[in-house]
Amino acid sequence: MSGETQFNRRDTLKAGAAIAASAALPTIATAQAPARMKLRLLETTDLHVNVVPYDYFRDAADDTVGLAKTANLIKAAQAEVKNSMLFDNGDFLQGSSLGDYIAYKKGLKAGDTHPMLAAMNALPYTCGTFGNHEFNYGLEFLDNGIAKAEFPLVCANIEMTSGYPMVDPWRLFEQSFEDESGAQHVLKIGVIGFVPPQIMQWDKANLDGKLVAGDIINAATKHLPELLKATPDIVVALCHSGIAGGERKGMEENAALHLAKLDGIDVVLTGHQHLVFPGGKAFDGIAGVDNVKGSLHGKPACQPGFWGSHLGIIDLDLEKRGERWQIADFKVEPRPIYERTPDRKIVPKAATDAAILASVKTDHEATLSYMREPVGATLSPINSFFALVTDDPSIQIVTDAQAAYAKGLMAQTPMKALPILSAAAPFKSGGRAGPAFFTDIAAGPLALKNIADIYLYPNTVQIVKITGAQVREWLERSAGIFNRIDPARTEEQPLINEGFPAFNFDVIDGVTYHIDVTKASRYDGDGKLVAPDAHRIVDLAFQGKPIDEAAEFIVVTNNYRASGGGNFPGTRTTVVLEAPDLNRDVVVRYILEKKTIDPKADGNWAIAPLPAGVNATFVTSPAAAGKLPAGLKAEAAGDGGEGFAKWRLRG
Question: Which residues form the signal peptide (predicted)?
Answer without folding.
Answer: none
